[in-house]
C-alpha cells in the first residue's frame, strides 16, 4: 500500500524530529509491506528565508496532493521582529485554513514510567487519559477586522472573535463522536458568562447533544477548566472547545505529563489530508545539538497511522514500542536530570526501532 506523505521539517528542532519520523515510518513500511513516499517542502521561517513567504504555493500544492502531512515545528527568535502577517506562524495558520483543518486532537496520557516527571502528585495524575478537541480555523486567530492603528499613546489594536453556527456545530459534533468512540463523557469549555460567541457555542452544544442521548456531557467555564486540569484531571475524558481556549488548555494539560516533548497532535478536515505534529514548538535553544526528544513526533506518527491511514495494527505496535522504551528506562535530556544518561535524538529513535523489530520477531 503506497501512501504519499508531505514532510514539512520547518524550523529549530523540526528537521531533527522529522528525520526520526521518516526513519521509523520506513521501518514500519518494511515490517508491514507498505510503501511510504516522502516529499519534503518548506514552511515557516525557513520558507521565509528561501522564498520570502511562510507558506509558499509549492508547499501548499505538495500538501494538497498528499495523503497526510507531517510537520516538525515553525518559528524562532530570528523572525520575531517581522510583522504579524509575515511571521513563520502565519504559514501554519494559512496551512490550517487552506486544508480546512478544523479539528485539532491533543491526547494527554500518562506513561507510568514517566509519572515522576510530572509536577503533580502521583495520586492526581494516575489514570489520566483525556483528549482535547480544539476548533482550529475560527475564533480570534482568524477573525476580521484584525489591525493596529494610530501612533504613540493613541495606538489601538483590534482582534475580532467570530464563530458561525456551522463552525461550532461541526467541531462539537466531532467532540461527541470521539466521546462515543471512547465510551466516555464530554466537557464543553466556553466563557458563556462574558462572551456572546460562547453563548452561541453553548446553545449549539445543547442542540447537538440531542443526537447523542447516551453521551453524558456538561458545560464548564474556561477559567474553571484551567483550574480543574491541575486539581483533578481524571474527571475529564473528552474536552471540546474553541480555538484560543484549546490552545491554552492543551499546553497546560501537556505539563501534566511532565514534558512538552511527549505530546502529539492531529489536525483533521472532513475529507482532505490531515496534519500531524508535536506540540512542543521549535525549541531554538537546542536546535542542531541532536538532543531533541523525538517521541512527541513519533506519537504523532501513531496518530497519522490511525486517523489518516487506518493502520491500527501498525499504530498499536509503534505506541507499544514507545512505551517499552520508556519502561526500559531510556530518556532524552528533557526527561531526566542525569545528563550522563540522556540519549540523543538519534539514539532514542534507534531504541524505538529496536523495540519495533523485537515485536515483529516475537509475533
Element layout with pairings:
Elements: E1 2-10, H1 14-32, E2 35-40, H2 45-51, H3 57-64, E3 68-73, H4 88-98, E4 103-109, H5 122-125, E5 129-135, E6 147-149, E7 156-158, H6 165-182, E8 186-190, H7 196-209, E9 217-221, H8 222-231, E10 238-241, H9 243-254, E11 264-268, E12 274-278, H10 295-308, H11 312-327, E13 331-332, E14 342-343, H12 345-362
Parallel strand pairs: 1-2, 1-3, 3-12, 5-10, 8-9, 8-10, 13-14
Antiparallel strand pairs: 4-5, 4-11, 6-7, 11-12
Helix pairs in contact: 1-10, 1-12, 6-7, 8-9, 10-11, 11-12
Order of helices and strands: EHEHHEHEHEEEHEHEHEHEEHHEEH
C-alpha Rg (nearest Å): 20 Å
Output the CATH topology of the largest domain.
Isopropylmalate Dehydrogenase
Q: Provide the CATH architecture of the largest domain.
A: 3-Layer(aba) Sandwich
- The helicity comes to 40-55%
Overall pLDDT score: 94
Q: What's the overall geometry?
A: globular
CATH classification, class level of the largest domain: Alpha Beta
The structural class is alpha/beta
- Uncertain runs are none
Strand order of the largest sheet: 2-1-3-12-11-4-5-10-8-9
Strand segment tally: 14
Please give the domain count.
Answer: 2
Strand-residue fraction?
15-25%
What about the largest sheet?
10 strands, mixed
Helix tally equals 12
Q: State the CATH superfamily name of the largest domain.
A: Isopropylmalate Dehydrogenase
- The first-to-last residue Cα distance is 21 Å
Binding site for Mg(2+): 223, 247, 251
Subunit structure: Homodimer.
EC number: 1.1.1.85
Protein name: 3-isopropylmalate dehydrogenase
Amino acid at each position: 500500500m503506497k501512501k504519499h506523505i508531505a514532510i514539512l521539517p520547518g524550523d529549530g528542532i523540526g528537521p531533527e524530529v522529522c528525520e526520526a519520523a521518516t526513519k521509523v515510518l520506513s521501518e514500519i513500511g518494511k515490517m508491514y509491506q507498505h510503501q511510504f513516499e516522502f516529499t519534503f517542502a518548506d514552511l515557516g521561517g525557513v520558507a521565509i528565508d528561501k522564498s520570502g513567504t511562510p507558506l509558499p504555493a509549492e508547499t501548499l500544492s505538495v500538501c494538497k496532493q498528499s495523503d497526510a502531512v507531517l510537520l516538525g515545528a515553525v518559528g524562532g527568535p530570528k523572525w520575531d521582529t517581522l510583522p504579524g502577517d509575515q511571521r513563520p506562524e502565519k504559514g501554519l495558520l494559512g496551512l490550517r485554513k487552506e486544508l480546512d483543518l478544523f479539528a485539532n486532537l491533543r491526547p494527554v496520557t500518562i506513561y507510568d514510567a514517566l509519572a515522576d516527571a510530572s509536577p503533580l502528585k502521583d495520586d492526581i495524575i494516575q489514570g489520566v487519559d483525556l483528549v482535547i478537541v480544539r476548533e482550529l480555523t475560527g475564533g480570534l486567530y482568524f477573525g476580521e477586522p484584525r489591525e493596529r492603528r494610530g501612533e504613540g499613546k493613541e495606538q489601538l489594536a483590534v482582534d475580532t472573535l467570530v464563530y458561525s453556527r456551522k463552525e461550532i456545530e461541526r467541531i462539537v459534533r466531532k467532540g461527541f463522536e470521539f466521546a462515543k468512540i471512547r465510551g466516555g463523557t464530554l466537557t464543553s469549555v466556553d466563557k458563556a458568562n462574558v462572551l456572546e460567541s460562547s453563548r452561541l457555542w453553548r446553545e449549539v452544544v445543547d442542540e447537538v447533544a440531542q443526537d447523542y442521548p447516551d453521551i453524558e456531557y456538561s458545560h464548564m467555564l474556561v477559567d474553571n477548566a484551567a483550574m480543574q486540569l491541575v486539581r483533578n484531571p481524571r474527571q475529564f475524558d473528552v474536552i471540546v472547545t474553541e480555538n484560543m481556549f484549546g490552545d491554552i488548555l492543551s499546553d497546560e494539560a501537556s505539563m501534566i505529563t511532565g514534558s512538552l516533548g511527549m505530546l502529539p497532535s492531529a489536525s483533521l478536515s472532513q475529507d482532505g489530508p490531515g496534519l500531524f505534529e508535536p506540540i512542543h514548538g521549535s525549541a531554538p535553544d537546542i536546535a542542531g545539538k541532536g538532543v531533541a526528544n523525538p517521541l512527541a513526533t513519533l506519537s504523532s506518527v501513531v496518530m497519522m497511522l490511525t486517523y489518516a491511514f487506518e493502520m491500527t495494527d501498525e499504530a498499536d505496535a509503534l505506541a507499544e514500542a514507545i512505551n517499552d522504551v520508556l519502561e526500559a528506562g531510556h530518556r532524552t535530556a528533557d526527561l531526566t536530570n542525569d545528563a550522563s544518561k540522556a540519549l540523543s535524538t538519534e539514539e532514542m529513535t534507534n531504541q524505538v526501532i529496536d523495540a519495533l523489530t523485537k515485536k515483529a520477531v516475537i509475533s
